[in-house]
Amino acid sequence: MEYPSLDVQATGERIRSLRVEKHLRVEDIAIFMGFESPNAVYKWQRGECLPTVDNLYALSRLFNTTIDDILIPTMREEDECLPLRL
């Protein structure tokens, strides 16, 4: 078994889809997180970077889901989906 890694692009797409599903604007998330601007949220959605652990926890509460549901691991076709352990 290979060491699991996160798919930053897919995680960004997942953050965007959860935001849309909850009818939230990027600005709504930035306000909830206490950010002065929404730039970090845009970077997450574009897959340029991942949220910190604290921010992942806050997002999981905002979206009413788990951190594992937000993070998307890089999977190959022959790999089974393994739960992430933080």
Descriptive keywords:
single chain; 86 residues; mainly alpha; 434 Repressor (Amino-terminal Domain); 52% helix; globular
Please, could you describe this protein's structure?
It is a single chain. The chain is mainly alpha-helical and 86 residues long. The chain has one domain: lambda repressor-like DNA-binding domains (434 Repressor (Amino-terminal Domain), Orthogonal Bundle), CATH 1.10.260. It contains five helices and no strands. α1 crosses α3. The longest helix has 14 residues, at 8-21.
Mean pLDDT: 88
- Fraction of helical residues: 40-55%
Whole-number radius of gyration?
13 Å
As for the CATH topology, it is: 434 Repressor (Amino-terminal Domain)
Which H/E pattern describes the elements?
Answer: HHHHH
Q: What distance separates the N and C termini?
A: 18 Å
Tally the helices.
Answer: 5
The unreliable regions are: 76-80
**Tell me, what's the shape?**
globular
Q: What does the largest sheet look like?
A: none
Question: How many strand units?
Answer: 0
How many domains comprise the coordinates? 1
At the first level of CATH, what is the class?
Mainly Alpha
CATH architecture: Orthogonal Bundle
Structural class: mainly alpha
Relative strand content? under 5%
CATH H level, superfamily name: lambda repressor-like DNA-binding domains
Summarize the structure.
The protein is mainly alpha-helical. The chain has helices at 8-21, 26-33, 39-46, 53-63, 67-70.
Topology, element by element:
Elements: H1 8-21, H2 26-33, H3 39-46, H4 53-63, H5 67-70
Helix pairs in contact: 1-3, 2-3
